[in-house]
User: Fold this.
Amino acid sequence: MNRITTALLAALEALIVVAIGVGIALVPLTILWGTHYGLSIDWFVFWRAAVDVWLLGNGVDLAVQLPVEVTTALGLAGAEAPFSLTIALLGFAVLAVLLGVRTGRRAAATRYAFTAAGAAVAGYALLAALLTLTAGQTIVTPAPVQGILLPTLVFAAGVLIGMTTGARAARPELPAWLSRPVGDQLSRIPAEVRTQLTAALRGGTAVTAAILALSGLAVFVAVLANFATVIGLYETLQTDVMGGIALTIGQLAFIPNLVIWAASWFIGPGIVLGTGSTVSPLGTSLATVPGLPLFGVLPQGTLEFGFLGLLVPVLVGFVLAVIVRQGLDRRPNAPHGPVPMLVTGVLIGIVAGILLGLAAWASTGAMGPGRLADVGPNPLLVGSLAALEVGVAAALGMLVGGRRAPGSIDRAEEVSTKR
Assistant:
């Protein structure tokens, strides 16, 4: 394929990615428009709602001004004044990143990798701008600059990951920096330090992934254990079939937020669900919360053994540090001695703290007016405590997880034989 064809196909793929993201919300809303409202309402109302959901899922802030009759029906303090929705439905962002990775891999496999990636990102930015301009209305208005930049940056991050991971199978026309591992870019750093830094990055990333995986499992178990409560909350909303489907899709997009919140709970700070409402291992204190059935899985009252949840990041940090140390000992340029091992463990904690803090920051925001303007974990507190807990545990794991050198084993066997 020539350069123009490659660019056009990449732009078409960006169009498909945007269509999938918007269509997830638009399809059930369109069916709801036909079945429940009998086509009596302007369809563009549902189009704007779907685009608003997509933009919110990509981190775009929405300014909301509810009509007087709606604020009266809701009975929420402060709902009559304009407020912002800033909490992202991270499921849409995760989907955009995954599809962006696919686009990046396809770009890396072409002869004109940068042309393909640039055309995909540029096409995505153009579509995001068009959607942002068509989504504005009197009730909900997206931030225009954010609407163009943030969805594009989310997709571009996925494209970059896809290009980097797909570089080993790329054509030789690709630049050299894409076809070499990250460690080769740090060739000026001494070999032992480079090995130590690589081990810390891998260990911190693995700890973060493990904590989030265990948090996802905890959310799954909580949903099963509180399934009757969740169904009861569905029934109180009195939605029809399509309304229930639309609500379920929105809650599925909120699952990544809940997983990150569970990780924040394990780390210790927990979350706030509005000013004055907290959910932490020490106990749960809730006032009025958003009427999402999924919130029925939140723990209630004081948990007698809730403090045991704090062991999760500690144990994960220790176990994975032992594994990292085992792999580090097999490397030819591995650092030796207790001090480098302690430093590596501390660096693992810092990497995990940064990543978990960023995840907490992405999952927090405003979910409504008044006290609901503060929802989610405290990113700085989550990152700091995660770095402390994982760092201490990882430092111990790096110290006790070493393998005996082959020479010392052979000498021990030789002495035993002589005796």
Remarks:
- The first helix runs from residue 3 to 35.
